[in-house]
Design a protein that fits this description.
This protein is of the alpha/beta class. It contains 7 helices and 10 strands. It is globular and about 65 Å long. The protein starts with 5 loop residues before the first strand and ends with a helix. The protein binds adenosine-5'-triphosphate and magnesium ion.
Length: 276
């Protein structure tokens, strides 16, 4: 039996009244969110995965870039780390949708550059890079050029690269898009495993893939647009709902995707998507 006992500790990431306008168009309006440190009572080393779910074109990438400190919001602010510092570029690792890698460096070299940038010695970087390649089934591709990798392999290298940079916060833009079912499942396993590597690991991912988002997340936020009393759509997307997957016992254990509550939530969210 999975124990769902946990303590809710300090805030790790907060967005306060975040608004974003691009070319005079309101993309995000008054987005408030808070991720707090969840410490399980019976399991050590459990990080956290937060999924932000919303239909295409709504502003998910815009929000992720603001949370990662890569773009500035038009209004509001983002605070990060246990000390709640205003976010700056480099405070979170970001895995972009296109999984950019150094194309002129082999896979191993991509990882070594990342590990060295985090201050590891040459020997320590080598050991850690090889250990991660082994753990995530990429050892036979260590000498490959990025152009020789499949989409799924490339994604895994991009995630490992960010891990080796020593980031506690990992933000991922559409980590399941463009992947076949097998690679989607592998990406879910990788995200779950990365979240379990360290208690402080906090993964924020934005996606429109409903089943995968439920499968990997501990908390799900739904992005959408609100309507006025008169029925008109208000400009700008907000977080319009929170789904606590721990409370629903849809987190922290393998095989949840084969349970009736999982299927019920997929259908519930599909129905909500249709109204957004
Ligand atoms: N720099 C920009 N200048 C002007 N408009 C922008 C800019 N960036 C984003 N937008 C607009 O903001 C809206 C939200 O874009 P965003 O990329 O954040 O959506 P998304 O939810 O990530 O979409 P997708 O699911 O397709 O990735 C879109 O209408 C887009 O055209
Ligand atoms: Mg996007």
């Amino acid at each position: 039996m999975t124990s769902y006992a946990y303590d809710l500790r300090e805030p790790l990431l907060r967005a306060e009244h975040v608004g974003a306008e691009r070319d005079g168009v309101v993309i995000l309006r008054d987005v408030d969110l808070e991720i707090r440190n969840i410490v399980r009572r019976d399991v050590a080393g459990q990080g956290q995965v937060v999924g932000i779910l919303g239909p295409s074109g709504l502003g998910k990438t815009t929000l992720l870039r603001i949370l990662a400190g890569l773009d500035r919001p038009t209004h509001g602010r983002v605070l990060i780390t246990e000390q709640q510092h205003p976010v700056r570029p480099g405070m979170a690792g970001v895995v972009f949708q296109s999984y950019p890698l150094f194309e002129h460096r082999r896979v191993l070299d991509n990882l070594l550059v990342a590990a060295r940038s985090a201050g590891l010695s040459r020997a320590a970087a080598n050991t850690r890079a090889h250990a991660l390649l082994e753990r995530f089934g990429l050892t036979s591709h260590a000498a490959a050029w990025p152009a020789q990798l499949s989409g799924g392999q490339r994604q895994r290298v991009a995630i490992l690269q960010q891990l080796l940079c020593g980031h506690t916060y990992l933000m991922m833009d559409e980590p399941f898009s463009g992947l076949d079912p097998g690679n989607k499942a592998r990406a879910c396993d990788l995200i779950t495993e990365v979240a379990r590597m360290d208690e402080r690991t906090t993964i924020v991912l934005v996606t429109h893939d409903i089943p995968e988002a439920i499968k990997v997340s501990d908390t799900l936020w739904l992005m959408g647009r609100e309507h006025s009393a008169a029925g008109t759509t208000l400009p700008g997307a907000r977080i319009i709902d929170t789904y606590d997957l721990i409370a629903r016992e849809l987190a922290w254990r393998p095989g949840i995707e084969r349970t009736p509550p999982f299927t019920a939530l997929v259908h519930e969210l599909e129905d909500r998507f249709a109204t957004l």
